[in-house]
Write a structure and sequence with these properties.
Elements: H1 2-17, H2 29-42, H3 60-78, H4 83-118, H5 129-140, E1 148-156, H6 158-165, H7 167-182, E2 191-195, E3 198-204, H8 210-220, E4 223-225, E5 228-239, H9 246-282, H10 286-303, H11 308-320, H12 330-333, H13 341-359, H14 365-372, H15 394-408, H16 420-430, H17 437-448
Helix pairs in contact: 1-2, 3-4, 6-7, 6-14, 10-11, 10-15, 10-17, 11-14, 11-15, 13-14, 15-16, 16-17
Length: 465
Amino acid sequence: MLSTAVADSIFLFQSAAGTYVEGSWLDIFWPGAMLLVAASAWARDRSEKQLEVKGKTLFTVPAACALVGIGVLVYDHFQQFNLLAVSLSTATLLAVVVRLAVTFRENRRLFELTRGEAITDALTGLGNRRKLLSDLERLLEGPSVEPSLLMIFDLDGFKGYNDTFGHPAGDALLARLGAKLAAVPTAEGGAYRLGGDEFCLIVRVGEGEAELLIDQACSALSERGVGFEIGSSFGAVLLPEEAKDASQALHVADERLYAQKHSRRMGTDRTMDALLEALSLREPDLHMHLDLVGSLAVETGLKLGLRRDEIDELERAAQLHDLGKLAVPDEILHKAAPLDEREWAFVRHHPLVGERILRASPALRNVATIVRSTHERWDGAGYPDGLAGPEIPIASRIISACDAFTAMTSARPYRAALTTEAALAELERVAGTQFDPAVVSVLATHVRDGYRVERSAYHQARYRA
């Protein structure tokens, strides 16, 4: 390529000057260049590095062409070339200018695209946390700040929706809710997704408008369907009245968000206490059994790497997994002889009853989903839905194994309590058919490392799995 470029340059120069002669030494360059190209095709590439294109090399060819063109025009100023040479040089310079303009426009487009991606949430198209911080700082830095409302939202019920319908459905739900939040009147592009199921909104407010805007935003971040209900908790801050900078505003909003979630959790605890009291009235000795199942399930869940919120739901579900037995008649629940088919139908129905009771409380909907599946089996032979393997929520699999272990180490009217080692051996025997093998492995290790089942009067109570 270099040989061809040199020959062409000399040819153009001699042609412009009228000194080119056919058959001279210059004609050797062109066939020589073809031979070099052919030889390069057979050459072995000994380079181990990837081809790297640096930004400066993009300007090498236009710069070289521009210099040649300028040189021709300068030479023409002192000694006249023919018209063709001057025209080619001028055209070269124009082509260089056009090429540089195209390159600049493309670079600017890429810069704007990169900048947009850096401040935009890819899933919802809303602004991300970086854009929120930038907008907040710009809003609060002026000498006179228009009254605005900052709201941070955390979705309630989203985790249960994700577990039930899958992550693609969860992503689609987030996109729908984000679009609804952005459509809130006066939002004017001030809607953001901070990550996960957290959203944010900044809107300008007038006197008495804050409450209406909060209601509209909460309504936008809610959706209800068969088997699910999504709502939100929020923390709101009036700017600049309650915060003077971005960091303080976000801190206050976060505090109020988690205060609201805590108050709702306290309400949930009161609901749980009432339900557990109802169970205790039905079976006074059941409370200790449920506490043991709950503590064992929590330890197992922690060793399996569950998040803090998942552990909280696991503990609640473990304590309430037998709630549906309130609907099972005493003569069936406490029957010492084997159950007939009609009686088994009552027992198999109790997870659904427990789920329906828990779903009446919005804060316990995720717990209800776990309770429904606590009697499923790893091989799909359980009830009520015949789920198998990973289809069963992990919390349900943990409770199932822990409940079985606690029951086996408790005395029954028809058999004595098994020893800890015998109960673990039975769990390991049916791991992979009745129970999740990974859960059984973690549970057995935890028990053998020092857990001891407390022996007390509750071991005489009668339980049906």
